[in-house]
């Protein structure tokens, strides 16, 4: 019997960011840090806010940017959830605009995907720490990144 994994939309994170800070250049790589200053979490499985204070460390080699973000979410019930969100951003010729229903989740010519891991001991949100997710990211102006989280079933 064959099995094809499927993704279910869980929630969307809108992370507000400050100006990127240059850390350094080395051996064909540029390292930078982008502070996360707040934001929101909206969706059928989780609602809340992004707490200020986290950030995204990125390493760019050529056209490929490797992302390593760590920040905190706070659910509507007050529970704090740690997220480590790693991924890649790169141009990808021939990639079309991608939609989830009417919502555009990625722009043509770009590969912007993440693989988040969540940690919490809050009983109501423990499912986050026990589920594999895929994030489809997109910029929202100059001061925000939106990541649409899908749970792998």
Please give the alpha-carbon distance between the first and last residues.
17 Å
Secondary structure tally: strands: 11
| Apparent shape | globular
Instruction: State mean pLDDT (0 to 100 scale).
Output: 93
Largest sheet: 8 strands, antiparallel, barrel
Q: Outline the low-pLDDT stretches.
A: none
Q: Helix/strand/pairing class, anyone?
A: mainly beta
TL;DR?
The protein has 153 residues and is mainly beta.
Draw up the topology in text:
Blueprint: E1 7-17, E2 21-26, E3 29-42, E4 48-61, E5 64-75, E6 80-91, E7 98-100, E8 103-106, E9 110-119, E10 133-139, E11 144-152
Antiparallel strand pairs: 1-3, 1-11, 2-3, 3-4, 4-5, 5-6, 6-9, 7-8, 9-10, 10-11
Written account of the structure:
With 153 residues, the protein is an all-beta fold. Helix content is 0%, strand content 67%. The protein is built from no helices and eleven strands. It has strands at 7-17, 21-26, 29-42, 48-61, 64-75, 80-91, 98-100, 103-106, 110-119, 133-139, 144-152. The strands form two sheets. The protein has an eight-stranded antiparallel barrel with strand order 1-3-4-5-6-9-10-11. It has a two-stranded antiparallel ribbon with strand order 7-8. The protein is globular. It starts with 6 loop residues before the first strand and ends with a strand. The relative contact order is 0.21.
